[in-house]
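tool_call: predict_structure(chain=1)
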Amino acid sequence: MKRVFDLVIAAALLIALSPLFLAIALVILLTMGSPVFFRQQRPGRGGRPFTLIKFRTMAVGASRPEDQRDEARRLTRVGTLLRATSLDELPELVNVLRGEMSLVGPRPLLLEYLPLYTEEQARRHEVRPGITGWAQVHGRNALPWEERFAMDVWYVDHRSFRLDLRILWLTLVQVARRSGVTQPGQVTAQPFRGSGGGKS
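tool_result:
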């Protein structure tokens, strides 16, 4: 039932929001140039990697590690608006159609975090990652990592169609308030360094 719901809603949203989708792509192309989309390998269900698709929010930077970390310098004004409104996440609906993601589930993080999880934290990969999730509607990037992972695992243990509907509704409220988008003093959040290593 969850998969059918994901397919129907993702397809309907892509069709209904296609004018907005194209408008955002055009604005990015005019203000930042190509590529329009940001693609990155993320761990999916069972930790298997897939290519996450989002709208690009940063100027293309140099390949040196110190430049890649300088997100504040590379984040554009258009990108800031897209992140604040969560519109940069729209292309992930394609990931949902492909079966790589769900509308609701633990957010897909970075592949490099996989060996840093405790056995309990790694349980977040027992389900498909989601565009939104239980942690996202309870603080998003402002949450400590351990609290966020605990919420992800709680969702895995208590997931239901009714809970998904609740999370989707709370997501609309969260987006309208533009809360939890960033961690204080960060463009997004500190990277995860292992248990007790930061926030997101």
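agent: Strands lie at 37-43, 49-55, 102-104, 130-132. Proceeding to next step.
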